[in-house]
Structure formats: structure tokens, C-alpha cells
Amino acid sequence: MANPASSSQIPEVVLGSSTGPKSMPVLAFGTAANNLQPIQLKTAVIEAIKLGYRHFDTAAVYGSEQPLGEAIKEALKLGLVASRDQLFITSKLWSNDAHPHLVIPALKKSLENLQLEYLDLYLIHWPISAKPGKFVFPLVDVMPMDFKGVWAAMEESQRLGLTKSIGVSNFTCKKIETLLSHATIPPSVNQVEMSPFWQQKKLRDFCKANGIVVTAFSPLGAKGTSWGSNHVMESKVLQDIAEARGKTVAQCVGTSTWAGLY
Ligand SMILES: NC(=O)c1ccc[n+]([C@@H]2O[C@H](COP(=O)([O-])OP(=O)(O)OC[C@H]3O[C@@H](n4cnc5c(N)ncnc54)[C@H](OP(=O)(O)O)[C@@H]3O)[C@@H](O)[C@H]2O)c1
Fold this sequence. Notes:
The chain has one domain (7-261): TIM Barrel, CATH 3.20.20.100. By secondary structure, it is an alpha/beta fold. It is globular. The N and C termini lie close together (6 Å). The protein is built from eight helices and twelve strands. Helix content is 34%, strand content 16%. It has an eight-stranded parallel sheet with strand order 11-10-9-6-5-4-3-12. The chain has a two-stranded antiparallel ribbon with strand order 1-2. A two-stranded antiparallel sheet has the order 7-8. The structure holds NADP nicotinamide-adenine-dinucleotide phosphate.
């Protein structure tokens, strides 16, 4: 967890097509932690709130919505935050539910898990659908997504007030282009893997030109996972930069990777 020092020091960005005036803190606390018990995750979130984090990233498939919801309830009870609207909560639609008629029920289930009345941001987790039913990871029984129908349901969820903004994750320029060709509410955010070793320049330029904020997952390189690497955390260049500034590599990468999740 990179220490943001204080919530007042975390810059915020206004999301183009969001409902309401609220902006998104660019530093977020990720909750996809397979090796943590729910009570450990709840404690970690409460500690993160004490450190100043206000933006939390979860997903239906992570199994972290319930402990995050418990932590938010506790933080409100303890007075760590004055009201729910001081927090920015992102969750995501999993592929088994990425079918037009399942989007709103899935979002309502996420809200029930989180004990919240609305999300700040709801993302399509991956640009692929899977047979409805039990979540299986890695995905089986995959099929192309009905982008038009799924996005229309995402738009409806924003109109209903179930989420303040909507977006996508792991979408290429081409897939966003398809989506924009029929969207009435354009995506506010595209959350993708991005780090000093995977800078996504073409995608960032495309999103910037279309008013879409790019958020980075795994900005520290997801070391210790089957798909990540130690490249970021063990980079000599980044270590030298960190040493010169009296910071850690995580702090340097965190503050230079725009809109990052840790
Ligand atoms: N949309 C998507 O498809 C998607 C995919 C992946 C992730 N995400 C989101 O992005 C979040 C972050 O992803 P990630 O865990 O893969 O990110 P990450 O950038 O790889 O950061 C986590 C890793 O960095 C280390 N770390 C964290 N803070 C550190 C610090 N201050 N100093 C040194 N090391 C530090 C952790 O090590 P230790 O465990 O040893 O502390 C862990 O290995 C997830 O929780 C999730 O919310 C989204």
C-alpha cells in the first residue's frame, strides 16, 4: 500500500459523463487479494481510510465487496469519514453477468454486498461474456459480448441512480470505438494494466482524445502473481530515482502513474 499521507493531498479528476459533481481521487486502494481473509481485508481498508485513501476498487469476482462494505460501515460508525459521499467506490460487472438482462441485477447484488445505495463507478470488467451462472476463474464457456445491449443496460443503471458513472476495463481502442458508435453515455473510465514497463501510450492518447480517464491496475507490476513480474519493483532506474528523492519505488511509481490502484 503506497502511503498517500493525507486524503487532502490526493488529486481528483472530474469524470466527463458522471451524474453529479463528485470527482474521482486518482489514487485508489485495490481489494483483489486472494490470500487475505475477509476480516484482514476489512482491517486493511479501515487502516487505508485512516491513512487518507478515499477511493476503493472492488469487483463482484474478487469476493471483496462484503468486507469492503463492512469496513465502510465501521469507518462511518467510528467517524473516520463523515458520510458515504466522501468515499469513491468502484465495482465491476463480471463476464458471467455481462448480458443485457443481467447487468442491473448484478449491480444490485454488488450494492447489497457493499451495503450501499449507489456506486460511484461501475465498470465492465473484461470485454468478453461467459455463460450465465456461477463465477468461474479462469473463465470457461466464453462468448462475444453483445456490446450494444450490455452498454445500454450500463447506461440504464446510471440513469436509475444505481451508479454515478460507468466505464470499462481491459478495453482496446477498437473495442471502445465500437462502444462509442452506439453509446448515449460515453464511458468515463477505462481501467487497464499500466506501469512504467507497460505504458499504454496509444490507448492513453486515444482515451484522452475521447474524454475517457485511464486508470492503471497493477502499477507496481503485480509481483508474485503468475502473470506479473518484479520488473517495476526491481528496476535500477526507478530505484535510483527513488533514492535521489528519498522515497520508495512504490511512492515514485504511485505518484507518477496517473490514476493508479494499489
Ligand atoms: N480491472 C482488472 O482487470 C484488474 C486486474 C488486476 C488488478 N486490478 C485492481 O488493481 C489493484 C491492484 O492490482 P495489483 O495488486 O496487481 O497491483 P500492483 O501494482 O502489483 O501492487 C500490488 C503489489 O505491490 C506490492 N506493494 C504494494 N504497495 C507497496 C509498497 N508501498 N511498497 C512495496 N510494495 C508494495 C505488493 O506486495 P506485497 O503483497 O508483498 O505487499 C503487491 O505485490 C487490485 O487490487 C484490483 O483492485 C484490476
